[in-house]
Specification:
alpha/beta, L-arginine/glycine Amidinotransferase, Chain A, three-stranded mixed sheet, 15 strands, about 20% strand, binds arginine, EC 3.5.3.6, arginine deiminase activity, arginine deiminase, hydrolase
């Protein structure tokens, strides 16, 4: 049996599900892609190869080995994208909440059934079909649950909007003792630089009291100011539109001292080191072409 425990984003990691790039399938058709950055690379002929993405995920796996983190991998589904495990389910405290994700990605959940089977059934939570959320939009911080959402009336036409207000309220109802704060995110189906696909694409805490943030990813300045107020301006690392596009906010914490980051994120990695983090730099730029990075490809099961 796996004894789940995740209270935040940065406590020492002990067990994690890491996505896989094996049998990712051929380059998708434009009409089958579900984020603008993938579409951009399909058009340009630069969509990442399976081989390159496998190498990148192996590099992340090696870091987990170094820190003696127990790693679970999804079972392989033929020709199916299974890189971004983060979105398909997530752990809050000792519960596994299974997401209602974009229908294009639904099969990904079958591939982790063998892991779900090792969890006490009364700790597993599912929501009804009209309740939408993906793990990339959900983040834990002290007594808070932060949730990225999209409140526009055109929600159903926005393929990059994955968490609705029903999703926010559902999570709120599960954790009456936590402060659930939702953020209306900026979305674009067509321009990746104007698209905060998930909350972790424009914001993420690191360490005990710091965070990476892209101000313009928040539709309302008051939401951005809420975070400024909570963390303190001096503890925030602000990233530009271009850095959001490169996925700077999507690094991944192994502890409140150790952060895995992309090797080309020089400005961020220097800032982290200046604040006494150990930065484990790995190549992940090919995977970033699908508008996801390190946080997106991991699903923590146990942290201290
Ligand atoms: N947690 C995340 N930010 N996940 C990124 C997922 C990217 C994937 N291309 C999608 O559109 O679903």
């Amino acid at each position: 049996m796996i004894k789940l425990n995740v209270q935040d984003e940065t406590s020492r990691l002990r067990a994690v599900v890491l996505g896989i790039a094996e049998s990712n399938g051929p380059t998708p058709k434009i009409e089958d892609a579900y984020d603008p950055k993938s579409i951009e690379h399909i058009k340009a002929g630069t969509y990442p190869s399976e081989r390159d993405m496998i190498l990148e995920m192996d590099a992340l796996n090696k870091v987990f080995e170094k820190y003696e983190v127990k790693v679970y991998r999804p079972k392989t589904i033929k020709d199916y994208n299974q890189i971004f495990t983060r979105d398909i389910a997530f752990v809050v405290d000792d519960k596994l909440i299974i997401s209602n994700i974009l229908p294009d990605r639904e099969k990904e959940i079958d591939a982790i059934q063998y892991i779900i089977d090792q969890i006490e059934p009364n700790k597993i939570i599912r929501a009804s079909e009209d309740v939408h959320f993906e793990g990339g939009d959900v983040m834990l911080w002290n007594n808070h649950i932060f949730i990225g959402t999209y409140k526009g009336d055109d929600y159903k036409d926005i393929i990059t909007a994955r968490t609705n207000m029903k999703g926010v309220n559902f999570i709120k109802s599960l954790f009456p003792n936590k402060i659930v704060k939702e953020f209306d995110l900026v979305k674009s189906n067509t321009n990746a630089k104007e698209n905060a696909l998930h909350l972790d694409c424009c914001f993420q805490p690191v360490g005990k009291n710091m965070a990476i943030i892209h101000k313009e990813g928040f539709k309302n300045e008051t939401d951005y100011l809420y975070l400024v107020n909570l963390f303190g301006m001096e503890n925030l690392f602000h990233i530009s539109k271009d850095e959001m596009y490169q996925m700077f906010s999507n690094v991944f914490s192994i502890s409140n001292k150790v952060v895995v980051s992309e090797k080309s994120f020089t400005r961020l990695n220097n800032w982290l080191r200046k604040h006494e983090f150990i930065v484990e730099e790995i190549p992940y730029a090919e995977i970033s072409k699908q508008e996801g990075l390190l946080r997106c490809s991991t699903m923590p099961l146990i942290r201290d």
